[in-house]
Amino acid sequence: MLSSEEQTGLTRQIRAGAVWAAGGNIVMRMTNVAVMAVVARIVAPDELGVFALAMTVHAFVVSMAELGVASALARSDIDPDQIGPTVTTIALMASLVLGGLMAVFAQPIAVTLGTTEATDSIRIMALGVAMIGIFAAPGAILQREFRQDQIFMSTLVSFVIGSGVLVGLGAAGWGPEAFAWSRVVTQLVAGFLLIRFSSKYYKPGINTKLVPALIKFGLPLAAANLLSQVLLNADYVFIGQMLDVADLGLYMLAFGLSVWATSLIGSVLNGLVLPAVSAIRRNGGDLVKTIATATQMVAWIAFPITGCMVVLAEPIITVLYGDQWGEAAPVLRALAIYGAVFVLGLLFANIIITGGNTGVLLVVQVASLVALLPALWVGINFAGLIGVGYAHAIVALLVSLPVYVSVMRKTTGVKISSLVRSVRIPVLASVIASVLAWVSTFMVESPLATLAVGLAIGGCSYMLMTFRLWRDYIPAKLHSKSSQRRIPGKTDLNLSSVGQTEEPVVVDSLTKEVQK
What we know:
- There is one protein chain.
- The protein has helices at 4-39, 45-62, 71-74, 80-104, 106-113, 119-144, 148-171, 176-197, 211-242, 245-258, 260-282, 287-311, 313-321, 329-353, 358-412, 416-440, 447-465, 467-470, 509-515.
- The chain has 2 domains: 9-242, no CATH class; 244-357 and 409-469, no CATH class.
- Helix 2 (45-62) packs across helix 10, helix 10 (245-258) crosses helix 14 and helix 11 (260-282) packs parallel to helix 14.
- It has 19 helices and no strands.
- By secondary structure, it is an all-alpha fold.
């Protein structure tokens, strides 16, 4: 059980990490949109489509690059010094082998996906896969220590350099290879900075007693990640085979924009949920209450963003990327719904991982994949690109999310009714705010003015309707003491409750092996 000082320290660490993760990712996502707004006026949709195929291959391979073992270092209930060298060795060997195979078979892979033009980009991206093992452990250590400030600095510096490479090579006519080289450069710079900032760097070593436990923990997680990438990228394969690369470019732009804001939330969740919730589990904190609060906050952020994308799709695409990308707007509407469901699933998946139940994630991904593949085929044949977006949304809403909730209910004790109560206000407020934003767009004509008016009216109305949810997070100096009183029935993420309940501590096989 934590002392009061330790509780306060943990709370401060998590809050500081959340602030840096959220603030840093807001900056990164905004600058990324700005860079893509420039690049979209340099490259054509078919060039972006070729890169999309290369990124699809990269996503499949990189999900298995370190076999999932690095996540064990981020768990605060395991001694990192005991497993660090073994984790580094496994990650290095796996990433080098997979990167080499990706480079060797680049051409047949490109042919299978529908165009040989992706061969060079796939070979370039293979370099990034090979580097994963070098940087896996330092990144996990920084995540474990809630050093989101240093992770942000690494990401920012690498992004600036990589974006310079992208714009420069794109303007020089390198096409899809410009995207590929920029990704490799970005990863290289970020990786070296992670090593520089990490408090520990583990040289390769091997403890044969730990290998089975690490593989047992990591391999189901890596397999689940692979299936997750198949779920996220199977649409690119279908479009590449059944449509053309220009359609693929339009779809990639719409998909990236649809998950832009939810990816921002997701990156915060990936950086904080695993170490924070594992600490709450370890010290007997109020896990059920924490889950309900986290669900409410994620919904509060994600749902209004989805609503705005649905009603403001045309002006968003036109203002950001230009008229040549206008056909991506209908696709954005369908995919925006998927983005909101996806981020809730990501939250629940991270919570499930903290209990060591990584095998469950594999079951979730298999069930979703079985449903998605025929849905994509049907969607493309009946509605083209828009059908792909709706296929994703329907499967995520009717298959993936219910399975996540069911598993989490069994492993944590959280009730479905509690989760429903957590999201009902954000859902209702988002619908009303989106309708108001849509109605307001009829008052103006230009795309820029339409976007500005819609966001202003929708955003302000949403904040007013959800004031009860966020007012307690305003610094005390900015509102009266009366407004700081706790709202009956409102759940806060209060880590000072850690150690005050009798929630059982979950100890899996990896934890037991390290304790020996």
